[in-house]
Specification:
alpha+beta, four-stranded antiparallel β-sheet, two-stranded antiparallel ribbon
């Protein structure tokens, strides 16, 4: 990794380590940390066999689409066609509410926007548990 990438990673790490403000303005401890994605080893479970590692590697290489949703709005096609530069579309969220973090259209977390070196990022403030995600699929 280059020095420039390390510096950028450090800047993002500092931004992510800032305290998170929860409901009612209370400051929450942030558990943000920098993670090297290339070093994924499947966790602390027992070592994987060669065949298991190959299967896991195949799954880990599947691309997914991650998106952040600020809010939604339903409007008629008539109103949609009348939108132009400078138009404002009201969303179903209040200012300051967390964004939804979606992976392939499934809610996995909530977060807030951060800016580092003129680039947007998102600090996760709440990760949806696997149990909750499964309940929403049913």
């Amino acid at each position: 990794m280059s020095d420039e990438q390390n510096e950028l990673g450090d800047a993002w790490g500092e931004a992510m380590a800032e305290p998170v403000t929860g409901e009612g303005g209370k400051e929450q401890a942030s558990a943000a940390r920098r993670v090297e994605l290339d070093d994924f080893n499947g966790g602390d479970a027992a070592p994987l066999s060669g065949d298991e590692r190959r299967k896991l590697d195949a799954i880990l290489d599947i691309p997914v689409t991650i998106s952040m949703e600020v809010g939604r709005s339903k409007i008629s096609i008539r109103n949609l066609l009348q939108l132009n530069q400078g138009s404002v579309v009201e969303l179903d969220r209040l200012a300051g509410e967390p964004l939804d973090v979606m992976v392939n259209g499934t809610l996995i977390a909530h977060g807030e926007v951060v800016v580092v070196n003129d680039k947007f990022g998102i600090r996760l403030t709440d990760v949806i548990s696997q149990t909750e995600r499964i309940k929403k699929l049913k």
